[in-house]
Amino acid sequence: MLLTFLKDRLTILVMRKLFEIINNNLSRLRISNLFKKKSTSRKSLPVITLSREKGSGGRLIAYLVAKKLGKPWKVYHKEIVEAIARQTHLENNLIKEIDEKSVSLIEELIADFFGRKYLNLSSYYKNLVKILSIISQRGYAVIVGRGANFLLPESLKVRVICDMKQRIDWLIEYEKITEREAIRKIELSDRERKEFIEELFHHDPKKAHHYDIIVRTSQNLSIEQAADMIAALAKKRFKI
Questions:
Q1: What are the boundaries of each domain within the chain?
Q2: CA gap 78, 69 in Å, rounded
Q3: pLDDT surpassing 50 at residue 65
Q4: First-residue to last-residue Cα distance in the chain
Q5: What is the rounded average pLDDT of the residues 76-88?
Q6: Maximum average pLDDT range among 2-6, 67-71, 119-123
Q7: At what angle do helices 78-86 and 123-138 cross, to 10 degrees?
Q8: At what angle do helices 123-138 and 100-114 cross, to 10 degrees?
Q9: Mean pLDDT of all residues in 74-79
Q10: Which fold is adopted by the domain 51-235?
């Protein structure tokens, strides 16, 4: 009888575990379908997210790409995003550029993306992802850094990298600093950016599969040439 009881108990536990797995998969499927339904409810506007290593020329490339694509393309890097997040009138100006349906959609998509974790985010992170989402709904944006590629999976996801020696040389040339200062800035930047992405999105920004294309700038591939490649890819991707 004891053996029969143990078998029955084991069967119940197995069935309960299977039920939990099925239920979890159905929940994920519902969230996935929700994303698809919302993303197809309005035409997805073109956005380029550009992750970069310090000293690789990524920010300059972003401005060149926007220039090559022409109006109404704009660049949003860390300082611009944070300025919008700090100043209410700048945020309101940005919101005016999108329709009311997009405003309500933004909050839903953020909540779906982060789930319960969103409640535990700091006010800074909450505001940051809100601004990035608003920018994406406006479209025609090149967003530099801030992990935007993880939040905006439909964007053209670009990463710009460069050999350490070239990064050091370019920082020395453009920022007029010593080699020691350049190395310190690069190492600090690499560490801070990695920690930021891991804390907010739980990903490693260096992993290649997070991007559509990785561009390696060097003496053999100039910043101008890199911008040409990205702009050409964007035109093809977004049919513009």
A1: 51-235
A2: 21
A3: yes
A4: 74
A5: 75
A6: 67-71
A7: 110
A8: 130
A9: 86
A10: Rossmann fold (3.40.50)
Where residue 135 falls among pLDDT bands split at 50, 70, 90?
confident
State the angle between helix axes of 164-175 and 179-201 in degrees (0 to 180), rounded to the nearest 10. 110
Alpha-carbon distance 47 to 139, whole Å?
Answer: 6
57: which residues sit within 8 A by CB, 6+ positions away?
160, 162, 170, 217, 223, 226
Cβ atoms 158, 49 nearer than 8 A: yes
Strand ranges inside 53-100, DSSP E: 74-76
The pLDDT tens digits for 19-53 are 454 455 444 444 444 444 444 444 678 999 999 99
**The two structure tokens encoding residue 188:** 């600090």
Backbone phi, psi, residue 152, to 5°: -120, 75
Of the candidates 147, 161, 135, the one whose C-alpha atom is nearest the C-alpha of residue 61 is: 161
Reduced 3-state DSSP string for 173-188: HHHCCCHHHHHHHHHH
Q: Which residue, chain included where needed, has tokens 């070239």? A: 166
Q: Which amino acid is present at 2?
A: L
Distance of CA 222 to the CA centre of its chain: 25
- Angle CA 202–189–66, to nearest 5: 85
Q: Is 75 in a helix, a strand, or coil?
A: strand
